[in-house]
């Protein structure tokens, strides 16, 4: 029995809402990922789990209940964290 590598969702359009399953891997490729960047979600019951992160990409997974959620990459500025970019997802129990 051969094991296939896990499928990774790579969002191409920031305005489109992508369907993801809980814990499904998502590869995000913003213009830059500062070393001190942090991740935030629009819902307190959803957590962003960072699997891998470099200065040009990040592989994350969303853990939480079903529903729409926005994920933002934040960078600390003089007036507090500010968003660099964001993506839209919908966590679903089963992805077709």
What does this structure look like?
This protein is an all-beta fold and 96 residues long. It has a single domain (8-91), classed as Immunoglobulin-like, CATH 2.60.40. 0% of the residues lie in helices and 52% in strands. It contains no helices and 8 strands. The protein has strands spanning 8-9, 17-20, 25-28, 38-41, 47-53, 58-63, 67-77, 80-91. It has a 4-stranded mixed sheet, with no helix packed on it. It has a 4-stranded mixed sheet with strand order 2-8-7-4, with no helix packed on it. It starts with 7 loop residues before the first strand and ends in a 5-residue tail after the last strand. Residues 1-5 have low confidence and may be disordered.
Strand and helix map with partners:
Layout: E1 8-9, E2 17-20, E3 25-28, E4 38-41, E5 47-53, E6 58-63, E7 67-77, E8 80-91
Parallel strand pairs: 1-3, 2-8
Antiparallel strand pairs: 3-6, 4-7, 5-6, 7-8
SSE string: EEEEEEEE
**Runs with pLDDT <50, length 5+?**
1-5
Number of domains: 1
What fold name goes in the CATH topology slot? Immunoglobulin-like
User: What percent of residues are in strands?
Assistant: over 45%
**Which strand order spans the largest sheet, edge to edge or round the barrel?**
1-3-6-5
Which percent range fits the helix content? under 10%
Largest sheet descriptor = 4 strands, mixed
CATH class: Mainly Beta
Radius of gyration over alpha carbons? 14 Å
The number of helical runs is 0
Estimate the global geometry from the Cα principal axes: globular
Mean pLDDT, all residues: 87
CATH architecture: Sandwich
**What structural class do helix, strand and pairing data support?**
mainly beta
Instruction: Please provide the count of β strands.
Output: 8
**How far is it from the N-terminal to the C-terminal residue, by CA?**
24 Å
